[in-house]
Amino acid sequence: MKKSNNITRTSLPFPHHQKMSRLFIFLNIIFVLIANTTSLTEHNLKPKPKPNTFVIPVFKDTRSGLYYTNVTVGKPPVVANLVVDVRGSALWFECDTVGYNSTTSTPVPCGYMSPSSAYVAPKLPVRARIACRGYFEGMMNMLPAGTLGILGLGNSSTSFVSSLVSSYKIPFKVSLCLPSKPGNNPGSVYIGGSPKRKDLTGLLVSTPLISNRETKEHGEDYNYFIDVKSIEVNGKRLSFDHDLLKNKRGHWGRTKIKNVIPYTLLEAYIYKALVRAFSEKTKKRKAVYPFTDCFSYKSFGEKSLLGKETPVISLVLGEGAKWDIYGPNSLVKVNKNVVCLAFQEADEFESLFPIEIGGYQMEDNLVEFDLEASKFSFTSSLLRHNTSCSPQ
Question: What are the helix and strand counts (H, E) for the chain?
Fold first, then answer.
């Protein structure tokens, strides 16, 4: 099956009024299926084994900083590029734009989401839930040009992960390895299991996944949260009011994993504390949009952002785990002389969370959401181990 990794950048004519459709469809998504058995020939009458891990290739869109995959849907088939959203509650796309008029679809009334018959390559049946755009009207302007929807991987009964878990009786486990560069070497999403890569053995560190009562009350329980206790830079604890990391009235003191924002958002006082720590031994430079704090590349050795001159940011998590964020995930090189801090100050009127971890901080890190064990696992930067999310 031929894989496409280029987004056609065109202005997409989106209609303004459209009801959500519940679709009985045939879905063909570019998957690699892994099974712990030997392959069977077409003459072998034994039933084929069910896969225990699905692997989806993920590409980076440099203009938006988001990540996407390619999906073929319907009969006759049409192709759509979908943004991968680890907290997305559903698989949905802009049906009219791609001329979707499948003979296997059946619209149902708006307000409900029913199962759909589907196939994943190579023609293995799965029950999936898919919606046309109307229900998600407000999200279209957030997507990169050329993408037509969301592949939702969240903790939701309507997410694509839940469809595979239900059909194949696999664990509710999502592993994400985002690529840092565009091109023909994608990263991967693993559903149901972990990557079978020897270069990743022994690198995962774990902390509990936590629930957030307030988000459940507001119907957002499909998000993934972790408990950040404090933040360190080169082992020194940042100075700010750590009550910001706790739940309180009008403020949800949990850290959300949100790869559909390019850079991690920090509450204002936390962001300022981080800037102070980075500014102690570096020379400030004029800000380069969209960043607000930039520095001389010479201050970090001018050779590699993995070098000892680059401060290491550590998120101190529940049960003593530390997620270390190294230079390639904390700084963006905007030209040969300037790097900028790859964190942004959250809008106090828009964000209810002290920390929302963005996609850039997860690039070339393997992260894993294990709902069965209620834990979040991570590797920190794979570049330190001479590997990446897009190994050659």
Answer: 4, 28
